[in-house]
Amino acid sequence: MKHKVDVLIIGAGPAGIFTALEISKHNKELKILIVDNGRTIEKRKCPARATGVCVGCKPCAITRGWSGAGAFSDGKLSLSPAVGGRLTEYMKEEQAQELIDYADSIYRGFGAQEKVYGLDTRRVEELQYEASRHSIQLIHCPVRHLGTELAYNVLKGMYEHLMNTTNTTFWELAEVKDILAGPEGVLGATIKRRDEDELDEVFAKYVVAAPGRGGATWLAEQTIRLGVVTENNEVDIGVRVEVPNSIMDHLTKDLYEAKLVYYSDTYDLKTRSFCVNPGGVVSEEHYDGGIAVVNGHSYADPEKKTKNTNFALLVSTRFTEPFHQPIEYGRYIARLANMLTGGGVMVQRLGDLLKGRRTTESRLRKSTTIPTLLSAVPGDLSYVLPERYLTSLIETLKAFDKIAPGMYSKNTLLYGVEVKFYSSKVKVKTNFETAIPRLYAIGDGAGITRGLMQASATGIVVGRDIVSKV
What we know:
alpha+beta; FAD/NAD(P)-binding domain; 2 domains; eight-stranded mixed β-sheet; seven-stranded mixed β-sheet; 26% strand; globular; FAD-binding protein; FAD/NAD-bd_sf; oxidoreductase; FAD-binding_protein; flavoprotein
């Protein structure tokens, strides 16, 4: 089948959604097609949310589908350009902040709660002062937390708005095989829809590649095929830490998400906290190839809060030439963990790790920190993570214990592995257009952003650019 549209958007995460919102706001006549290899938001059902056990749905309801991975998982909106991506590499900080404020107003217009954490600058300064005594940098970033259930409602509202009041169509369970381009620019894409025997050929004046982290490998392959220049991005690999709320409450009460950075003592590697979930739940998500990695989320409803706080602790490494496979390296580490667990996520007590022994079911039962990921398999992370990473993670936890006493406890739980599949960064202009005319690359999958808000901002930039050209 052959189809013709004005704009083809590949990926239904925040970057793609905000591209469509901005285009339709200024030009309702343009025909927009959004495709994603996941399902519509109403069909995204994760059995593990009810049972605690992942059954390996294909596609994974957590990482694929309308609203993308981050929005469906937790819904944290970072309201500063200092966090969540590389916007300031393409524009001045003031412009980046204006885009974030504008995107935030759209989220609020669709029902995001008004409360913002981190506005008490005096309290933030006190925490920064205390952290600085221990060589820890606390990055100030106001956060609007949607919560897993409210994020669903907000993104569903955007879906209904686009489908019911604009010239936008959404194809679910649609796999883009190839982006098509000629001497004069982009032409469209070939797409395989589930339950369809033949490929669809979609011809478009503008193509926006916004596949998210789940599509990072696919986009890297497309850039090679099309001859689009990329550069290596950092590789972020680590664990998800779970501790009782009592250890983190004094930080999360005012900040919600305490973004902490520490340079490890032995190897001087940058190690940072990320995706903090007070009263949250550790979760499992799956990527192409059957890879299981750990993540976390939390609900806005106080009744759904747990007794634990979880957060990612990641070691950042930027490799140099001739290394050019940051995604595959992260996948390799994840596969090692899956190999030892029979396909799932591993959990280990910090005390067992420090003693050089595997956590067993009996040892896990002795833990005063009760795991929230019921399917996690007790094991030994030292067989998975490179020594440089493991040492850096342990040294960082020891440092964090000075501002969050109890962190460096034998009962602290470490889930592995947590990997952020940041694509090799696609070389784009300030409007996020590639060297191929009218082909744009945005969001996390393009290696440009690392969170909901900055991904949304890139969509706004592209939407405005397309409207101006039309």
